[in-house]
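Suppose a colleague, Dr. K., hands you the sequence of a protein chain of 89 amino acids and asks what its three-dimensional shape might be. Before reaching for any lab equipment, you can write down a predicted structure in token form. Begin with the sequence itself:
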Amino acid sequence: MSEETKVKRSRKSRMKKRPDDWDDMKTEVAKELGLWDQVTSGGWSSLSAVDSGRLGGVFSARKKEIEENFEEQDYPQDEEMSEDEFYDG
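The predicted structure, expressed as tokens, is then:
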């Protein structure tokens, strides 16, 4: 959260080691869902269970999509090798 105001996190949440880009993405999703004003005024704990679930669902889907795209870039699908080619190498 470079330019954004840091939102107060609970002690338990601070103990978890998460990358900073997760906080940035979480903030972005909260803004898209219209929850950012509530978060800045009352912290993340001020969100209702429904709002937290909605935010978590969108966040998880986005994180999964990013991870899948990253894996596809790193490990492109190779053509299958026959047994002979596998053992010859």
